[in-house]
Specification:
- With 268 residues, this protein is α/β, with parallel strands linked by helices.
- It has a single domain, classed as TIM Barrel.
- Helix content is 42%, strand content 16%.
- The chain contains ten helices and eight strands.
- α4 packs parallel to α5 and α9 crosses α10.
- The relative contact order is 0.15.
């Protein structure tokens, strides 16, 4: 079996108490059938950290982008949106950068800077279209605006993924209509995820991806502990039950979906 963690933050794992180093994380993952990873950047400085940590590990791909909660801080560092996205495009020319983001909107933690978040989100989409790379989208308490901007900016030209999906099927259908993939995290294993389970059952297998979003959102039975990529197997098992498919088939299909969306074959 061969699982791919389509969204994690390897640089943020606890290397003081839980892991010796990245090799330790990878060994734990490989032993649990998780063999490739997309570690996602949330700022330009974070991208440099990821690249320095991960560039010698061929099983780890990375993205380049600015999380919506980091937009204002990035403006302080770079002064203008134009200079920020010039830097993002330069950094994203690296073939190991297989996506832009994570970008999007977060009104849960920050609703007083919606306009800045929207500007950055639109610029990520435009850059992704120019670079012909997909985008990784974060949306929290903002799904209507998220979909509206994706539609207005014609994000079907670059495609992308809504990561750690928690919305209803109506929102999922709109994302599917513009060619997006939908990724499920450990939230799908939580006891109160009944509506989300119903939505997942309706998502076509060929548009489905899985992720840990580690070190966040640990799946059952690891809730309360720091998440890590090796726990992806628990998410795959839960999805196999909901989809009434064996976990090997879920592994095969989500791997194919990952390679298709992120155009990974060309650099393997």
């Amino acid at each position: 079996m061969f699982l791919i963690d389509s969204h994690c933050h390897i640089d943020r794992l606890n290397y003081n108490l839980l892991h010796k180093n990245i090799e330790d994380v990878l060994n734990k993952s490989f032993n649990n059938n998780v063999k490739q990873f997309l570690t996602v950047s949330t700022s330009i400085n974070n991208f440099y950290k990821i690249k320095n940590l991960c560039q010698k590990y061929i099983s780890i791909f990375y993205s380049c982008g600015i999380h919506p909660l980091n937009c204002e801080k990035e403006l302080i560092n770079f002064y203008t949106i134009k200079s920020i996205f010039k830097k993002i495009e330069d950094l994203s020319s690296d073939e190991r950068v297989i996506a832009l983001g994570e970008t999007g909107l977060d009104y849960f933690y920050s609703s007083d800077n919606k306009n800045i978040q929207k500007k950055f989100f639109r610029e990520h989409i435009r850059a992704a279209i120019r670079l012909k790379k997909p985008i990784i989208v974060h949306s929290r308490h903002a799904i209507d605006d998220t979909i509206k901007i994706l539609q207005e900016e014609k994000a079907e030209k670059c495609q992308g993924i809504l990561h750690s999906f928690t919305e209803n099927y109506n929102s999922a259908r709109k994302l599917l209509d513009i060619g997006f993939y939908i990724s499920f995290s450990g939230i799908i294993t939580f006891k109160n995820s009944g509506e989300l389970e119903t939505t997942l059952k309706k998502i076509p297998l060929e548009r489905l991806l899985i992720e840990t979003d580690s070190p966040y959102l640990s799946p059952v039975p690891y809730r309360g502990k720091e998440n890590q990529p090796s726990y992806l197997f628990e998410i795959a098992k839960k999805i196999s039950i909901l989809k009434k498919e064996n976990v090997e088939k879920i592994s095969k299909i989500t791997r194919k979906n990952f390679y298709t969306l992120f155009n990974v074959q060309k650099i393997l």
